[in-house]
């Protein structure tokens, strides 16, 4: 059989077989490469998505938004800032992060601070003899209004009282100054032929002085009765006592009265002793003193003896004697004996017609947390017992007084009285109130006082267009707008506000007021007096603490939700709320306990040996500052403050340390630097690092693929 | 010139042809076997890849807007990843501008294999966030919602008895479970070739072991996932 083939045919067969094998091998390798490439591509995509989603890059869209308080943080002071980062188009990968944001600083009202190094005491000795009703060197001010009281003395009344000539009221007869010059002329003596009584002049002088007092203990004595008001810091008591003095006595034993009150100063806790004699210098039936006192100054004046009737001149001797005991004697008053009165003041080491600054402590100190403005720290410094920071410009400031019907009357530029004891910053405006009931609006960028109103004082809260301030020393709470205009006033002992409502406690009652109008919208009466009230802006609830140690939780419409009994037996003085796992937690402070509670029960309670001054909850930890003034002569400059950190949920102690000398104010929170700062009376600041707290830096909330 | 082949030529040709035919046959056999092995291997790899892709996707979105301390829960053959699967009826949790995260439910009732929750809409967007066959993670451990659960009911029937107490936190979770016929995700078969599944978590992250096998083909993978 022949195929006709030859050797070339075999070569072709071999060649084809070889090509076939090569092709098969190539296809197998290609398939393998494609398969691996697909798998690699899939894994690459996954990996890319994961890594680009979880680590913030530079080519993504960021969006920030603000939500309510994060869990574990104090509802009153903190918010949540969400950062959203979107990457890619379809699918888009969205990652969320959060960090804590400041809602408001933990402002605190500090009432009646004192300095152990500066405790001046003053006795105002008032001559209440009938000669004080005699004429002085001046006539009545023709444009002013005066009141002749039933007892006969005449006093000047406030500038806004309007009377054309004369009007009778239950408190006495009001008359205009020019009318008084004709019909209410004081009995004049041989020296003066004027119309205004001496009492009218000294009354205005003394009440004007008291008006500027702060951080000074004052007692009032009269020449007829001796001490009639023991030492007090309550200016209202001083006014009331002076109002009840009637210059009707026939005798005026000035030297004897001064000698008697010298020993009325306390033995301890006193740094400066002053006596201010308010008199015309006419001694009547005076000089019945020990022999060595009658002419203590050894001027051998023949009138340095007891004289029945007018004439004794032992007052300068007693003043010199008092000065030898470390007591400075000052004199104020008109009359015929001005030169003698000046001599009395000189021998007594004091001043004639002294200003308030003579009595007040010169020390510079603060009793509020500092203000962080841009990169600078501003201290609300007090000097001469009044708010007087050196950085503040007073030019162009407008001063108001609260007149009748809550109208604001313009008044002349004057010193802001009282020390800065409360503050609230809203944007670039710092609202600050003083212990003597002033509220001020300070523009922080240019450090300029915009306006000051005399009358409203106490705690300040600014919401929307309203400022709520109070209670002041008279127990009045005011609603003010930014113009400023007084919108309403209400009596109460403590208050807090939501964005639209004000919650005012008075005794056992809580009132719900409209923040714009002050209109009462609700009332709830508890069993025990209310000691603290706090609105929780995160949960929209009102927390109320009572003197018996109970905590009440109300809705924002004042419906009672729950009551928690702490069994501390002490008044609640501070309430702080936070949440975690949807559960509301409350930290309560009393003088002797720190208490952690949930809505349904008390979780833990710690007895504290030193009273807590402030607490704040951050990342489920309570930062508590505690301080106790040194006994018996305490002041914000005594002892040391401590900072204790405890777990807010379990009550477990975490850490504690001494912070600064004296009482500390704060914390002032600076989340940008992850620090909180405390300041003491000397404006020393200590900063605490809070960077370890969850939420002070950007925290991951998760990633989502948007399909 | 000869017109035919000699016997020797014929025999040699037949021998060569036989060798070629045998060679081609054996090539065919090898090819068929290789093809089958490749298919099995590919099937195993596909199972692993599908599982890994889903796991990665779920882990990437793990605990989105939920408590970060409840990200993962591991039981024997079961892995619970906090989160919600993307479905036609649910596109996952949404950030609610009235509520700051984390979002969660609280147990208000616990009886037998039933859990009562304070809410089934944890992000408060009017869409229930729990449904049948979904997993849940509680403070005391993970559970699976029963297939009988009707969506919208605040009481969840579970596939096992509940040890979680009142007040504990609850969040929805995607759960992976290895059964005899493969790896299941939320009660649905995800990869039938998966015969081994294990997860271990530590402070560094999550380690996942996947094993796929078919006939004699076995494929394994172990990788670590770093959880934030």
Q: Mean of residue pLDDT of chain A?
A: 89
The total count of strands of chain A amounts to 49
How far apart the termini of chain A lie comes to 75 Å
Broad shape of chain A:
elongated
- In terms of structural class, how would the helical and strand content of chain B be classed? alpha+beta
Characteristic terms for this protein:
heterodimer, A: alpha+beta, 6-stranded mixed sheet, 8 helices, B: 228 residues, alpha+beta, 10-stranded antiparallel sheet, 3-stranded antiparallel sheet, 1 helix, elongated
What is this structure's SSE topology?
The complex is a heterodimer of chains A (707) and B (228).
Chain A: H1 7-54, E1 61-67, E2 78-87, E3 92-102, E4 120-126, E5 145-148, E6 154-156, E7 166-169, E8 172-176, H2 177-183, H3 198-212, E9 217-222, E10 226-232, H4 235-243, H5 254-261, E11 272-278, E12 284-286, H6 291-294, E13 307-310, H7 315-324, E14 327-332, H8 338-347, E15 349-352, E16 371-373, E17 376-378, E18 382-383, E19 386-387, E20 398-402, E21 408-411, E22 420-426, E23 429-434, E24 438-443, E25 448-454, E26 460-463, E27 466-469, E28 476-481, E29 485-491, E30 494-497, E31 501-506, E32 509-514, E33 520-525, E34 530-536, E35 541-546, E36 550-555, E37 560-565, E38 574-580, E39 583-589, E40 593-598, E41 602-607, E42 612-618, E43 621-626, E44 640-647, E45 653-661, E46 665-670, E47 675-679, E48 685-689, E49 699-706
Parallel strand pairs in A: 4-9, 4-11, 11-14, 14-15, 20-25
Antiparallel strand pairs in A: 1-2, 2-3, 3-49, 5-6, 5-8, 7-8, 9-10, 12-13, 16-17, 18-19, 20-21, 22-23, 23-24, 24-25, 26-27, 27-28, 28-29, 30-31, 31-32, 32-33, 34-35, 35-36, 36-37, 38-39, 39-40, 40-41, 42-43, 43-44, 44-45, 46-47, 47-48
Chain B: H1 7-60, E1 72-75, E2 78-82, E3 105-111, E4 114-117, E5 135-138, E6 141-144, E7 155-157, E8 169-179, E9 182-185, E10 188-191, E11 194-202, E12 205-214, E13 217-225
Antiparallel strand pairs in B: 1-2, 2-8, 3-4, 3-8, 4-7, 5-6, 5-8, 8-9, 9-10, 11-12, 12-13
